[in-house]
Amino acid sequence: xEERIIIAxxxxxxxxxxxxxxxxxxxxxxxxxxxxxSYGPEMRGGTANCNVIISDKPxxxxxxxxxxxVIILNxxxxxxxxxxxxxxxxxxxxxxxxxxxSTRDDINVYYIPANDIATELENPKVTNMVMxxxxxxxxxxxxxxxxxxxxxxxxxxxxxxxxxxxKEAMERGAKLIREQIKVEA
Amino acid sequence: MSKVLMKGNEAVGAAAIAAGCRYxxxxxxxxxxxxxxxxxxxxxxxxxxxxxxESEVAAINMVYGAAGAGGRVLTSSSSPGIALKQEGISYLAxxxxxxxxxxxxxxxxxxxxxxxxxxxYFLATRGGGNGDYRLLVLAPSDVQELVDLIMLGFDxxxxxxxxxxxxxxxxxxxxMEPVEFKEDLKREIxxxxxxTTGTKGQRKPNIINSLYLEAELLEEHNHHLQAKxxxxxxxxxxxxxxxxxDADLVFAAYGTTARIVKTAIAKLEEEGYKVGLIRPIxxxxxxxxxxxxxxxxxxxxxxxxxxxxxxxxxxxxxxxGKIPTHFYGRTGGMVxxxxxxxxxxxxxxxxxx
Lengths: 185, 353
What we know:
The complex is a heterodimer of chains A (185) and B (353). Chain A is α/β, with parallel strands linked by helices. Helix content of chain A is 37%, strand content 24%. Chain A has one domain (2-178): Pyruvate-ferredoxin Oxidoreductase, domain 3. In chain A, strands 2-3-1-4-5-6 form a 6-stranded mixed β-sheet, with helices on both faces. In chain A, 48% of the residues are buried. In chain B, helix 1 (8-18) packs parallel to helix 2, helix 1 packs parallel to helix 7 and helix 10 (255-270) crosses helix 12. Chain B is α/β, with parallel strands linked by helices and 353 residues long. Chain B contains 12 helices and 14 strands. The N and C termini of chain B lie far apart (45 Å). Chain A: InterPro entries: 2-oxoglutarate_synth_KorC (IPR052554), PorC_KorC (IPR011894), Pyrv/ketoisovalerate_OxRed_cat (IPR019752), Pyrv_flavodox_OxRed_cen (IPR002869).
């Protein structure tokens, strides 16, 4: 099995970080993994994206063209990556910042007001974690245990005091999925 | 030691330290700036020296000095910066000084782009500097191999008293993969009786030089260098081959392009095509002999590179006109995807499965 993921948004929304958490969690579970960031002459607030692969076989191309799942945090990224989801794949849209629906009818689309939920939790920085929680609830790509372990690896031991709020954000994202906001393909 | 997830550029620094390198001289340039960033932080912790030079030209000459004094030295840069280092690299080769030079290639010519490319193949394998010299050139395809080849590179540099170039690209520098630092790869650092470490009044001074005003002596030196390069050709060829004996089409690709080709191969195999791969790991010495094992009835060899066709020359030398050669490349920092590579392969194969 191979999970190919694109995560995209503005710089500062934490798209690189949740990509690294997924990659680390995959590694912890003994899978083959790669994380490839977009890099370029970007500026603060510009677009950022990363490609993550979690596989049972050695990773070939680290570039993801045909994604099983695409996690989108801002509108320009939706326009850019909507077409990369494979038929039957998953698209996660942050509706707090994106006012349009997906135009695809051959994929599973999940609408998550991630910024609003993060604001309710009084920590706008956990927007990405809400999206990650929703993603993991749908795909079960890695276990929550591995993700929590990966959190310490990515953010460092000194940030472990913030793990509870991040866990809560993930749980809110997951809950939203369980409450069937899923729009069937 | 357990696996850690590391960015390619940081892994370069960690591997160098693990290999006993204690000196780094360089100048920042995208997409390899995490190498000096990492080493500026980590080298002082192990008693090493990190110098951000005033330019690439200064950096490579600092490498010359430190290598001449017997140190294990690293420098790294990306294409335009490596171009600036060419004079120093030629001097290092002439004076037979060991060092490791990392080139995380980006689009060119000129300042070009900061995106991944493989445009320095000619520069690395044919000598970008003056004179009949060769570098040992190694091309890693993933971050683990990058670590292994850096560690091996320091040993090869010392063994042959020759600069070693690690030819990567922006993608391998920027991406993260799990790596392991294999202790068993570590070897004893050999003595360097030729180094300028101070005579202490006990011996004649050692002299590090690449200037020979007498032509006879310089020719003799050249014969010695060429004999050394022949020895590299005998002993240091490294290559990965896959299914070349009965493939209808064989890909030739190195570095990150080779792993993208592997994804294209998986697609083509699902469709019933018989395809293979030759992945040179050493670009000098080049694995010419591996091409002799290719299915003689194979329809062709498709070389894939992130340039306009440079390794293609070596593939043509290798097949001696006996097998048709094809090429697919992207330039300027564009990375070929598996789909377009597979399309090109289908075009060559026609309907034959």
